[in-house]
Design goal:
The protein has 386 residues and is of the alpha/beta class. Helix content is 33%, strand content 18%. It contains eleven helices and 14 strands. A seven-stranded mixed beta sheet has the order 4-5-8-7-6-10-11, sandwiched between helices. A three-stranded antiparallel beta sheet has the order 12-13-14, covered by helices on one side. A two-stranded parallel ribbon has the order 1-2. Strand 7, helix 5 and strand 8 form a beta-alpha-beta unit. The longest helix is centred in the last third of the chain and has 21 residues. It is globular and about 60 Å long. The protein starts with a strand and ends in a 5-residue tail after the last strand. The chain binds adenosine monophosphate (AMP). The site of adenosine monophosphate has 17 residues, from helix 4 and strand 10.
Length: 386
């Protein structure tokens, strides 16, 4: 357990990272803001919201790290974009937007923003009067052994990036305690309360190694939709299965929201942008394009060579990954490259295909480990959009 008095951002951030890196069950607390002399808290410390990890169900007296315990809304010192850390304050803002008859586009994120996220924000801005970005690292989509504690939290740079886009109208930065009123533990068998699950699309592909994942995603997106009440919502094609799950969820729950799946933003060498890329060392980064190269080779096999049998389609993809894994080993690099899975599914049903129809829309996807970092990517076959 760790107590941190906020005297400036550095101390706060150090306290936060100490808590995040802890693998034991610990909370980071700050004392109520009133216990500090006025002027001793930096504006950033007031605004930095860090949500706790492993078991998020604090004892009554405990307070998860929050910027300002009494604030109903907060505004960054630069003042360009309002940042809301309570649902009530956000709803007041939303009411005003409704009064002004403006349409709202919504981009849900977990922060650590990169150009892929910002591309969604720009697309939303082109199609809507106001754009809301949420930043929330959602515990329910992480398993106990996954990287929730280590997931990058970079609010100040995220904020600056959003200001630079000139496209974001408001930031929603909700607390775990508000999003999960019944508390949330990463152990699925112990979870209590309401959850949303899209049956039939959640337990293949990414859902095999991560059986908890899409329930967590569908649940948090439903909650965020209920808060933001968007007209349109923007997601990245990089997370192809997520797009399929959420599209079905919007349809089946009769939500009055138009969904857009925006093409994947890539680095110049093809690597799909991802918040997790920052975990890669330069040596790892130098081989990290292997998955994109692999699935692109498989796609080329379809488009250029007319392959339609699964085995034939995926053969060059397996070969590329195997070769890179061997090279990394032969060079004695201090990490391993390991294939998690490759998949070829129908775009609608997400059922694995043994044979691809000539014009059948499909998703060719996969996941690899480069060291301990898990990278995912996909390419679309016979379709432009998910
Ligand atoms: P995340 O913060 O990783 O949950 O991502 C938030 C949203 O950004 C999701 O809809 C992702 O699919 C999308 N996204 C992440 N990376 C990319 C990318 N490289 N290109 C386009 N969208 C992305």
């Amino acid at each position: 357990m760790l107590f941190a008095a906020i005297r400036g951002p550095t101390l706060t951030q150090r306290a936060c990272s100490a808590c995040f890196s802890s693998t034991t069950r610990s909370y980071a607390f700050i004392a109520p803001t009133s216990s500090f002399r006025r002027g001793t808290r930096s504006p950033l410390a007031q605004q930095l919201i860090v949500t706790r990890a492993r078991l998020i169900d604090p004892p009554e007296s405990a307070i998860l790290i929050q910027p300002s315990l009494s604030s109903s809304s907060i505004t960054h010192p630069l003042g360009e974009i309002p940042v809301f850390d309570t649902i009530a304050a956000f709803r007041e803002w939303r009411k005003e937007i409704t009064r002004q008859n403006k349409t709202v586009g919504f981009v849900p994120t977990m922060g650590a923003l990169h150009d892929g996220h910002l591309g969604l924000v720009q697309t939303a801005r082109q199609e809507c009067d106001a754009v809301v970005v949420s930043i929330f690292v959602n515990p329910a989509q992480f398993a106990p052994h996954e990287d929730l504690d280590q997931y990058p939290r970079t609010f100040d740079t995220d904020y600056a990036s959003l200001v630079a886009t000139k496209a974001c109208s408001a930031i929603l930065l909700p607390k775990v305690s508000e999003m999960y009123p019944a508390g949330i533990t990463l152990d699925r068998t112990q979870q209590r309360g309401a959850f949303v699950e899209v049956v039939g699309l959640s337990h293949q592909m990414e859902g095999i190694p991560r059986p908890h994942f899409f329930r967590g995603v569908a649940t948090i997106v439903t909650k965020l939709f209920n808060i933001v009440q968007p007209d349109r919502a923007y997601f990245g094609q990089k997370d192809a299965q997520q797009c399929a799950v959420l599209r079905a969820m919007i349809r089946d729950l009769l939500l009055p929201i138009k969904m857009r799946a925006v093409p994947t933003s890539r680095e110049t060498d093809g690597l799909a942008m991802s918040s997790r890329n920052r975990y890669l060392t330069p040596e790892m980064r130098s081989v990290a394009t292997l998955l994109y190269r692999a699935i692109s080779a498989a796609k080329e096999n379809i488009v250029e060579h007319g392959a339609y049998e699964r085995e034939e389609i995926l053969k060059p993809a397996f070969a590329i990954i195997e070769q890179v894994a061997k090279d990394v080993k032969a060079k004695g690099l201090p990490f391993e490259v390991r294939l998690d899975y490759l998949s070829l599914v129908d775009v609608e049903t997400l059922s694995e295909l043994q044979q691809l129809g000539k014009t059948q829309a499909a998703v060719l996807s996969g996941a690899v480990y480069v060291g301990t970092t898990r990278l995912i990517d996909n390419v679309l076959i016979n379709t432009e959009e998910l």
